[in-house]
Amino acid sequence: MNHSLNNILEAFNHMINDAIEDSTLNTNLEKSMRYSLEAGGKRIRPLLLLSTLKMLQPESIEKGMKTALALEMIHTYSLIHDDLPAMDDDNLRRGKPTNHKVFGEWLAILSGDALLTKAFEIIASDDTNSAEVKIKLVQLLGQASGHLGMVGGQTLDMQSENQPISLPTLEKIHSHKTGALIRFAVEAATIIAQIPQELSQTLIRFAEHLGVIFQIKDDLLDVYGEATEIGKPVGSDITNHKGTYVTLLGQQNAEKELSQHVNKAESILKDLSTSYHTNDLKVLLDLFHQRHH
Hints:
Layout: H1 3-17, H2 29-37, H3 44-56, H4 65-82, E1 92-93, E2 96-97, H5 99-103, H6 105-124, H7 131-145, H8 150-159, H9 167-177, H10 179-193, H11 197-224, H12 227-230, H13 236-239, H14 245-249, H15 251-272, H16 279-290
Antiparallel strand pairs: 1-2
Enzyme class: transferase
Pfam families: polyprenyl_synt
InterPro entries: Isoprenoid_synthase_dom_sf, Polyprenyl_synt, Polyprenyl_synt_CS, Prenyl_diphosphate_synthase
């Protein structure tokens, strides 16, 4: 990751540290929220938002900081709830005990709820963007994270467990469960920068390829990743009879599908590079493609 992205990430992490104020109710809720929000990870969604905005309008990157934080809160809440016994029943997340293992199930549920609602509060109270922009961001994030986006995709995923699924169903699951927030990251930057629709659609296509790349790589890491690096047991998808790109296509064809989406994403960046500095987005594309966890 190059120096400019490191600077963005450092500023973002400082913002996370200040995002959740100490409780006036004398509860452990904020401690639980912080535990998962500060647990690490690559912060790829906020970095994608901020890097896209930096490419489009470098002077406006501060306008994206709170939306990036809201996005990370939504993502974090989804991980807390995904790990619960009623869903994936995971004991580890990013190499650490999952939230409900540390704080108990009821507080983990409430922590996820609090992060979800805090995200919309943060966008609505952001005084760096106009009211019109904030309304669009709130609407888009609600759609990306709700029943037509991430939550809908997770529901379809849960309904599809322990039964054969088709490739179109798998693609539908992950375009919503995983891809919706990745797509939001890029589209939010286009809204903040207020760019022409044609350019926005081009960047959204790039984000859609990133979403598929992320998921195929995730499925491949479940086959050949290192448990100490990915922070959870390897082979859990196969053990749980879960439909993935690898179980449906085979490892070799999944690798081929991955390469095709990488090539298409690179082609979009190449076209954009005649007018914009796309280096940071290329770094993130490589991160999606070559990550080990």
